[in-house]
Structure formats: structure tokens, C-alpha cells
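Example (one chain per record):
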Amino acid sequence: MRSRQLAVITTVVLMSTMATAPAQAAASQLTVDLATGTGALRYGATGFLYGLGDEGIPNETMLAALKPQVTAQKAPDGLQHPNGDALKIAPMFKRAGGRDIQVYMQDVYKQWPYDNAGITDYLAKVDTMTRKIVADPYRSSYVYVPFNEPDGIWYSGNLTGLLADWKTVFQKIRSIDATARIAGPNFASYRSADLKTFLTYAKANSVLPDVMTWHELGNDFYSSWQDHYNDYRAIETAVGISARPITINEYGRSSGDLGVPGNLVQFVAKFEASKVDGCLAYWTTAGGLNDLVTHNNQATGAWWLYKWYGELTGNTVAVTPPSAGGSLQGLAALDANRKQARVIFGGNNPASGTYDTNVVVKGVPSYLGTTVHATVWGIDNTGLAASAAPYVVKEGDFTASSGQVTVPLTGLKGQSAYQIIVTPNTDTSTAAANRYEAEYAALGGTAKVTYGTNTGYAGTYFTEGYGASSTASTKFVVSAPSDGYYNLSLRYSAGPYTGAPTDRSLRVRLNGADLTTVALPGTADWNTWKTATTKVYLPAGISRVEYNAYATDDRDAVNLDYLDVAATSGTVTAYEAEAASNTLGGAAAVVSDTAATGGKYVGWIGAGSANTLRFNGVSAAAAGRYRMVVGYANGELGDGATNYNSNIVDRYAEISVNGGTAKKVFFRNTLGWSNYWTTVVDVDLAAGANTITFGNASTGYAPNIDRIQIAAPVG
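Predicted structure:
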């Protein structure tokens, strides 16, 4: 449900159903039982409605780091919005590890509520859309959603009409795509009686949905989610059908939830406990992961909550909040292989002020020891502003009594979320700012954490498993406050290893692409540590830095302790778009704007192949790949539904180096023509002088270009 009419009602009662903590209240208790497993991690809450706009919008790194599961997007070539086409975002979503792409088929219509031209008109459109999906290479990943909020659109008060048309549309889709997965009925809220009637009819007519969907957009979610879930499962039993996968493909209220870590914990915890999928609601602009991302590559506070969620490993365990319908909620997972337990929690009202809670961890397994180490991290609400990174709230050792430890916490913030990482008591130093411990990073291949008997490391232990491996990988997610050069300082050990050379090396991968091979001189033994520093150019915001084994021999047999990230200097050469040395083609023109660097930019690029901006004399010391930082503005609004969300357009440019094949690059809308943002684009330059041309041969324009900056990827 996306109509702004809801906002008035919702805002009035925004916090009315959530528990309010009185001033100076006694500490509450959140209990985690590590001995009671609740199943495999689903990561289902990490879904988005119109969270993806176009290829690269948002930056793929922002998506991949969250372990995305489901996205809901508009129909192929739909008119509802200028961007968010399911088929166009599919390649990026699948590269990032995404599972299902739900197709909102009625978004083929331009207006909201949807234009109602009759079922015959809609069936013709369904035919066209389904054939496009069948022809798409990602066909098996799509889930058809034939109706959206039919209880309020087309069929308000007419359930009988919906049932008949559901059958007709369902059969039309299946006649074209025999393997189609179809989701529904997609009510705007939980409607028990109507769902029972719907499923009874669908069973009798052999048109049962493969995925059950409805929306959770109201205050009642907080107190009644479990009732909704239990009631629905009871309906399935009563009707005599097997349990369907559930996707709540729009969740979060129109005000107060999106981007707020403390409130979003509620949804993450409850959806994971029920093992259902969910998509954040589309209340603002497309392409920003529903307020998790700002400026296309920078994280809001809520992004970090979902990053924590995506990095849970092992299996979930039982969590008991202070009250089932209360505001403080959490989820937890235990990984026996990594010897780690992680707890994510938050969400106490009122939003202002602070609260205290005791996190009780019971059922502590023997491999964690009789004394455990706990590090508590916090992430605050930043609205739509960029968040620096999580911060350390508390760290300490706790003695288990009868397999139970208590971590007392005070002064917690209502809109913030928190994470506790529990390990064996092997810590040798405290957590540090801008330091990323390998034992807490995402691991791949044979990489592992053992919490053994080695010494000399920092933190609580290190990553090993690189010996006799070509698959080991330690994957750090780092944050940079601005575009520029940073020293990546990797602390490692490379002791004697049979068959391995004295000196070792690892392959460094940055944001999904191989970057360089870093030399790691040998160490005297496995308890001796050295630091190898690599200077790299990072974009502002989030980057994925991986240290990978890569050879069939053991030249990469190392242990990894941590990664430090620190800003440093480096050569960056700027070229202003309006410079007289550049070449303007066709209608492209220099325009004055005091917000642009140098007070000018070049606009009117594109809308035809003749209208171009060519940077001349772009210098490279040696042939190779370079980072091109494009300063641009794009405030275009396009066609679409006229009564809600702004229809932002992500303009694209066709970028050609030295007259070669053009590369199509989308530029996130900057929400104003005098808002200049940056996007980093990789370009392959020849030694000496180069030309870089911006154009757009279609009827659309490229963004206004302020300047470019060129930097070598490795300093």
C-alpha cells in the first residue's frame, strides 16, 4: 500500500500500540537460549519493494553485503514508475546473490489506484508480460504477483469478483508459463475470513497460489504478527492444503519505520522467527533499498542492521523478549563451527531517552568455555544521512554459572539497534575504531576460526584455513567517509609450512573485482605477526574487501588477524567539464551554477548521438584500469503515478574511452539540479593522453557533468 492518504491516519497512532518504558524503569530482560535451536537461517526479512531502480542503482556492493533474498519490482515495461523494471534489475540482483524477484503485474498501469479498463484489457497485458518473462534468462527466479491490494483496488467489497478474476488470470499465466510460480492474493492487510474464502475457492478450482502474500503496514503488526501467522497456518490446515511459503511483500509503516534501526529490528526478529520473507515498503524513492542507502553507495544506520543480519551464521536459537508484543525484540544465531553466538536486538520506546536491559544468554555450550567474551556494538538512527559505522558499546568477560551469563546494558537508545558477539574468552586486546577483526568477518571456502592456542594476535582470535586451499576467503565490509586513497593494513602470520615458500601472497578483491596481489613476507613462526599495507582508492561509503587464496600451491598459506583502514594521500587529477580544452558536440553546452566546482557544468548531453561532452588530454602514467570519479547532478522527474512517491529518473550516460565501445552507466538521481554527487566508474586508459566521451544516443539525457577525477586503483 503506497497511497499518501494513509500517512495522516498512521502518523496519529504511530506509537500507540508499542510499549512505553516509564522513566527510571527497572532493567528489562531479553533471554537467549543457545541450547534451543529454531532452524536454519532464512534471512527472509532482507527484501525490498522498488528497492532497486536500475542497473547499479543502488551500487551492487550495497546490495550484496546484505545477503538479499526477495525483491518486488514493477512489471516489464510498466508505466507505474520510470524505474524498477523487474527484468532490468534482475542481472544485478542475481549477481548479488538474490533469490526471488516478485513481479507486481498491475504496475503495468500508470496510475494509482490502478486504471481499471476491465479484465479483458488486463488479460491482454498479462499475456504480453508473461511472454516477456518466459523469454528472460532469469525466468526461474521470477514470481508472478497478479494483483496488488485487491481488497482496496478493483475489488473493494467484491470478493466474489476477485475470486473469478484470480482464476482467469492464474490460468492465463499458466497457459503461457507452465512452471510459473504465482503469489497472492496480496491483500493490503491481514484478512482472516477473506483468506479462508480465497484458499477454499482456489483449492476447489486448482488455482492455489505457490506463495502466500499480504502486507503488514499498520500498528497491529507489533502486537499481532504472531496471531496473524498462527491464524493463517490454521486456515491452511482447515482448508486441507500444504503450507505455502509466505512473503510479506510490503512491511513497515508510512512514517517512523523505514531507516530506523530500532523499529526495523521488530520486523527482522519476527519474520526470521517465523521463517517468512518480507520486503520493506516503498514509501519514499526507488533505488535506495527503501532508505537503507543514501547517495547510492553510503549506508544509513538501518543498513548496518541488515548487514549484521546477513552475517549471522549457523542456526537461529530461541529468543524471549520482555513481552511478545512489546517494543524490545531480538534474534540470535549460534555457529558451532565458528564457536560464536550473535544476538541482534533493539526497539524500545519512547524513541527519545534511554533504557536499560539485561541480555541473559543461557545454554552456553561447552566449546565456548566457562568464561566467555562479549563485545556489544551499536548503530544509531541517522535518517537519510550517511552513518559512519557501528560503535563499541561494551566489551568484557563474563563467567558462566550453570551455563548462563548475563550482559547488563544501560543507556541504550530507543531508535538504535545492537549486536552482541559472544566468543570463547580468548581476547588479547579491545575492539578498535576502523579495525575490522578477521574472526568476525564473513568467511568463504576453507577459511575458519578455531579459537585455538596461538598467541600474539589482536582481538579474540584470527582466520586460518588458507594452507592447502585455493578457496579460503576473508571478506571485510569497510566504510570510507569520502572518495579517496586509503591504506588497507592487513595483519597476518606466515610461519613455516611444508611445501610453501618463505614469502607468501594473497589476491585482493575489491567490490567484486580482482584488484591486486599483495606480498606477505614470511614470519618466524605462527605466533609472530606482520602488517602489509596496500594503498587503494575507495569510493565514499561501503566497500567489500576480500583477501583470497588463489594458487594451487601453498604460496598463500597464511593466517589473518585484522584489517585497519586509514585515509592517506595519493595522486588524483581533476578535469573540469567546462574546460576550454574539452570538445562539446551538438547541443551540449556550458552552464553556470555556483554549486558546481568552478561555478560551471556541462549540460544538454544526450537526447541524440550528436550531443556529447569529450574530455581531452586525460593523462595516464601507464596503461591500465583507473578509477574515474564523476561529479554530476540529476534532478529529473519522469512520468508515472501522479499522486504519491516522486518519480525520480536515474539518467544514464554512454561513456567511451578513446572512441572505443561505449559503456552504459546509470547515475542515481541527486534529488535536485544543484545537488552534486559522485559516482565512481572504472575506465581502461592508454599510457599518455586519452579522451573520455559522455553521451546518450537515446531520447533521454545524460546527467549534468561537473567534472571528472582520475585515480589509479592501487597507489
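Caption: The longest helix spans residues 220-239.
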